[in-house]
Amino acid sequence: MKNLLSTEIFKLLKQGKTYYALAAIFIIEFLILIGAYFQGSAIIDILLSNLKESFYFEGTLLNGNLMIYLILNTLWFHLPLILMIIISGILTTEYKDNTIQTVMLQPVVKWKFISSKFLVGVLFTVVVVILTAFSAFFFSYLFFGKGDLVVYLGDLNFFEAEDAQNRLQLAFLSGINSMVFFSVVSLTIAVLLKEATKTWIVAAFFLILTNLLQKFESGNTIFNQWFFPKLNNTWQYFFYNEIPWDAIIHNNLVLFGYTILFFFIGIVVFNSRDIS
To answer: Model-level pTM greater than 0.85?
Structure first.
């Protein structure tokens, strides 16, 4: 298993598209920061000019904490999409190049082979989210400094700079769970479909559908608390005045359960199929 993991890591790092994906993520970050640098201050001053007369803010409204929050909101669609393409590719590429048949001629246990891909996919996802968080904090604070954070979630919520930083860090940590879920799903789709183009289309459709269902309002408790589309925005809960820890823990545990389920489905399906 150790050799399989090291081999999968090597193959992932040798793929050119891995680095294109990382570059795309950082370019999106820079575009957000550049756009805010030239236009954000004027827009925020217009929108919140009346509030400035009633509230005291440490620093400016356009600050690093607000930039990180904007990056979070932007990346939670683009980031899973990029990750799903890369992670699914570690299997679809094997089918396309017919290397999987060669691998299976070796004394390799099928379930260990596919498990190593899932584990490397999870590891890669965690590393990418951490790098994204680090770069977001570093460049946002470098160019915009720190300050109070204003967030609108039904009501305007205000957080002092230090409190905002802690909440943003927790949001990224919670987001790792969501990103891992999408990565595992994409690899399971790759197991089912094998072909790269079909896998990417279905994975993108799955992500879009999940985002649409997330916005669907329902009074059904089962739908709101147990259906995975409603669990992927748990990171936003850290920006309520009173953090609902019970809901955050519940949502992350249930979403982790869905991740294990898709992980298990992928392994069972791959292990039961003939490689052709």
So the answer is: yes
